[in-house]
TrEMBL record:
GO biological process terms held by the UniProt record: nucleoside diphosphate catabolic process
Membrane topology: Multi-pass membrane protein
Keyword field: ATP-binding, Calcium, Disulfide bond, Glycoprotein, Hydrolase, Magnesium, Membrane, Nucleotide-binding, Transmembrane, Transmembrane helix
Species for this entry: Anabas testudineus (Climbing perch)
Reaction catalyzed: GTP + 2 H2O = GMP + 2 phosphate + 2 H(+); CDP + H2O = CMP + phosphate + H(+); ATP + H2O = ADP + phosphate + H(+); ITP + H2O = IDP + phosphate + H(+)
Protein family per UniProt: Belongs to the GDA1/CD39 NTPase family.
EC supergroup of this enzyme: hydrolase
Parts of the chain that traverse the membrane: 12-36, 462-485
Protein known as: Ectonucleoside triphosphate diphosphohydrolase 1
Amino acid sequence: MSAQREMKEKNPWPVTIIIIVIGVIAIVALVTVAVLQNMPLSQKYKYGIVLDAGSSHTALYIYEWPAEKDNNTGRVEQTHSCKVKGPGISSYASDPWKAGESLKECMKEAEMKVPGKRHHETPLYLGATAGMRLLNMENGSASDQVFQAVEGALQKFPFSFQGARILSGQEEGAFGWVTVNYLDDRLKQGLETTGALDLGGASTQISFVSSNYNGSESPSNSVTFRLYGNNYNLYTHSFLCYGKDQAMKLMLAQQTKSGPETILDPCFHPGYNETKSYSDLYNSPCVSNRKPQGAPATFTHMGRGNFQQCQEVVKKVFDFTSCKYSQCSFNGVFQPLLQGPFGAFSAYYFVMNFLNLTNTSIPLDAVRQKIKDYCATPWKQVMAQHPDVKVNYLQEYCFGATYILTLLTEGYNFTSESYSNIKFIKKIKGSDAGWTLGYMLNLTNMIPAEAPDTPPLPHAGYVSIVTLMAILLFILFLVSLRPLWRRCSKHPRII
Ligand SMILES: Nc1ccn([C@@H]2O[C@H](COP(=O)(O)OP(=O)(O)OP(=O)(O)O)[C@@H](O)[C@H]2O)c(=O)n1
Ligand SMILES: [Ca+2]
């Protein structure tokens, strides 16, 4: 009995088995810890909300990105949008509280869409554009009251409200450019950038990088960025009063200079016939100083549907006479040589999409012919063919398309060749093209100036190396136990 116990004590096998088991457990633990420690956190998302208070309407956008990837490009996506019912907030100048009220429905929708536990940390921004710029010029206190009403309404929601303000035209242009290039993944990769063309209701923006522009000529058109380690010198200009709705007022002001009772407008379809009020037409600062003296209260707006004549009237809203720079677009505004591809969104897209003209490989002459035919179509026929399109939009597509073509070719100097560099777009990878995403990325510091450090090894490579090293160490350990095995073979087990 005592000899047997002695043999058992001298037998090293149980010890070896214990060592192997501990070793395997250690390897598994080591690899598990290493893998878990370096694994991306479980998919938690953060959110941001931007309200685009445009001249014609307000829209709410919700953006989402993985919580641990704040600094990476191409990861912020639009997950929801809500169109506010009614007109833009600047239209509530005489009833400011209604501007706040109007936002509530979309805000409630946002409350449902953003997970409750994220509400308090979700930044909420409201940016107003040309409609509020015009109201502010015309009546500063009315504009302040609209902002008070809007802020009061937004503060009642559980989000982290960051304020409501008017964007400058430069910001509007530059952030539209950031959005387009961020969504196209062009910034992080340092690729050639895409220019941005935004046509709103009250203003229009053009923004692009041109190698012959360093910002020294007309510095007020220059915006510089350092993004992901690359420097960008952006040319941008916003033309107030040259959005589609205000440009139409400019065009109608051309035709009502003498205060007539009736106009036969080439930019409206034959058979179109509406009574309009002079005070409504001349109610904006873009035209208010041109109101004809002694005009009647109303005029009869009749359509003639003639594209060439419409182009002639539209051309008159641009001033091509003076330029104190090396080159200009119009109204004496500097513009460097056009360069690279362009994305054209907002009303550019609405109008060209309606006319099936978003394909820019169609030659310009064919585009002109199509618009010419469309403008000449009798108004009755147009309405019958599009019963589901809002009449307010429908009546303006002839003018809209003529204006877009004139603005692009005569205003910005796109040619038959460079026209095909334009893409009419609404969304890029599911997110709307517009200034809101760029605005939020900027305010949340989500685009770093320098390229973010990337780990030297991908995650899978890292895991393989850790596992391999652990196994290697264990084998070395076993090899170092060889003397013990030898002793063990000299004392074979009895039982
Ligand atoms: N389905 C649609 C929607 C809008 N529009 C036109 O598009 C213009 C408004 O464009 P939008 O980009 O929404 O302008 P806002 O952002 O409201 O104006 P701004 O940027 O100037 O403040 C208006 O002329 C409107 O008639 C259109 O033709 N068809
Ligand atoms: Ca806009």
